[in-house]
Amino acid sequence: MGLSKGAGFAGLPAAVLLLFAMLLMGSVSGIGVNWGTQLTHPLPAATVVKILKDNGFQTLKLFDADSSILSALKNSQIQVMVGIPNDMLYTLSNSVQAAEKWVAKNVSAYVSSNGVDIRYVAVGNEPFLETYNGTFEGITLPALQNVQAALVKAGLSSQIKVTVPMNGDVYESSTDVPSQGDFRANIQDRMVEIVKFLNDNGSPFTVNIYPFISLYDNPNFPVDYAFFNGYSSPIDDNGKIYQDMFTANYDTLVWTLQKYGYGNMSIIVGEIGWPTDGDQHATLQYAQRFNQGFMARYIAGQGTPMRSGPLDAYLFSLIDEDAKSIQPGNFERHWGIFYFDGTPKYQLNLTANSNGLVPASNVKYLSRQWCVMSPSASLDDPQLAPSVSYACANGDCTSLGYGTSCGNLDARGNISYAFNSYYQIQDQLPSACKFGNLSGVTNSDPSSGDCQFHIMIKTAARLTTSRGGSLRQPVGLLMFLFMLFCTIL
Ligand SMILES: *[C@@H]1O[C@H](CO)[C@@H](O)[C@H](O)[C@H]1NC(C)=O
Ligand SMILES: *[C@@H]1O[C@H](CO)[C@@H](O)[C@H](O)[C@H]1NC(C)=O
Ligand SMILES: *[C@@H]1O[C@H](CO)[C@@H](O)[C@H](O)[C@H]1NC(C)=O
Ligand SMILES: *[C@@H]1O[C@H](CO)[C@@H](O)[C@H](O)[C@H]1NC(C)=O
Ligand SMILES: *[C@@H]1O[C@H](CO)[C@@H](O)[C@H](O)[C@H]1NC(C)=O
Ligand SMILES: *[C@@H]1O[C@H](CO)[C@@H](O)[C@H](O)[C@H]1NC(C)=O
């Protein structure tokens, strides 16, 4: 007893030093998450930052450089990847001055005096998607070069790295075997140039990998291969066995990079996740199965056959975004592990000892009232169809339709859902529930089972109460050290 106690005391200072060293090197690990902001009613930034901290997220990926979000991240100790939207690439590719302005305004201003821990700048987002018809193919590398030059000029290039989040089909394997991987033929030269540039500057390759999309696009895609529980016909790549699409896709990238001499380049999985609505395969059960399966891998630090060791990854996504384009599909508005109001959707353990997600606190809702189809209105009313079209076009009807959470509603239920969606998005304005005499407001919740008729949250602009003291100043570092101490002792 005495001996082990003595050893414990002797070990303490070393442990403290080690912890400080880890903190300084920024090697605090933990799954990251994407925070997208295309919502009609976003939660206050400070509320979202509290969700991040309460759930132990230490790394965060953004799609732009929103000043209210970056301000809310001050002193949070969260490591941030800020983003440059594709529509800015042209300007940045043409002008190093524009890149310098972007870096000064959106990076330097926050890292210097404001204590925001920016680690990466994502230049564009999936710019080589085939749906863009090549619009960004010629300008991505020049934009990357100009942003890198601006970071160098600002004296930030050793701590902040540039990268480009790529969609997982910029490379492929014609036989599905990872070792046959290569960049897509029509963009091969451009990809090799970008990879060389990233490598020259110590930057990572960032890729978004989506088994859900493979399943959505291809009716013959084997469902079990999308998940992490094993698959009856695994791929055997010279003795390396692949039982899930994520791992095979990741290693296809490793082989591809290796083919061009960049086999050691670090890889970030910029987005990984599963949506919960808007498609027959977008269910709470599948999303939990996928995300928890991925987290089990992540927590175990298991890696892939080609890259053992921990993965670097960002879940997609933190919160549902009801204003996202549904051009790719109705599921697009349902990627969150939280609903729009910060309520967890299902149990998800992000660490070995966690017991599910921690919800947002102090969320302010509008009144408990809903807009529904009036019981006296007739289904034959000629005004019904245009009214529903209008409500869905300006509201969100992505939870209606085959295989969705409200897919079992009858015709009246459908119409009520559409009316209510529009009414809530319009902040329950009385005029937003006046579809002739087809609609009326009710205090009785029309929700049933998984089909939720939401009540909208109050947005910052509509909150009458004071917004003072919005940022909780966290005693983060001390708390963190204390917790680690407790773990060690
Ligand atoms: C900073 O980022 C914001 C948000 O992405 C963008 O609107 C703005 O134009 C950027 N500022 C500069 C000077 O480029
Ligand atoms: C890409 O091309 C297709 C077919 O020519 C067209 O329908 C689509 O609008 C184009 N998309 C973009 C983003 O230019
Ligand atoms: C990659 O790293 C390993 C171990 O650090 C080393 O043995 C190998 O030579 C490196 N390969 C390349 C292509 O740099
Ligand atoms: C999460 O952890 C709790 C407590 O350890 C456990 O009861 C639960 O089954 C876990 N959930 C999942 C989805 O693994
Ligand atoms: C409800 O609406 C969805 C989507 O608009 C439609 O596919 C479905 O057929 C409707 N169901 C009924 C019973 O009207
Ligand atoms: C609804 O309004 C129309 C025109 O305003 C009227 O003709 C009709 O009688 C009303 N129906 C009911 C059930 O009140």
UniProtKB/TrEMBL annotation:
Spell out the molecular function terms from Gene Ontology: glucan endo-1,3-beta-D-glucosidase activity
Q: Which GO terms describe its cellular component?
A: plasma membrane; side of membrane
Where can this protein be found?
Cell membrane
What Pfam families does the record tag this protein with? Glyco_hydro_17, X8
UniProt keyword Magnesium present? no
Task: Please list the reactions this protein catalyses.
Answer: Hydrolysis of (1->3)-beta-D-glucosidic linkages in (1->3)-beta-D-glucans
Assigned keywords, A-Z = Cell membrane, Disulfide bond, Glycoprotein, Glycosidase, GPI-anchor, Hydrolase, Lipoprotein, Membrane, Plant defense, Signal
Its Enzyme Commission number(s) read 3.2.1.39
Against InterPro entries, the record matches this protein to:
GH, Glyco_hydro_17, Glyco_hydro_17_plant, X8
Task: Name the membrane topology term.
Answer: Lipid-anchor; GPI-anchor
Per the record, the domain of life is Eukaryota
Signal peptide (from-to): 1-30
Q: Which portions of this protein are annotated as coiled-coil regions? A: none
Instruction: Report any one BP term from Gene Ontology.
Output: carbohydrate metabolic process
Major localization listed first in the record, in broad terms: membrane
Q: Which residues form the X8 domain?
A: 369-453
Question: What family does the Swiss-Prot or TrEMBL record give for this protein?
Answer: Belongs to the glycosyl hydrolase 17 family.
Name of the protein? glucan endo-1,3-beta-D-glucosidase
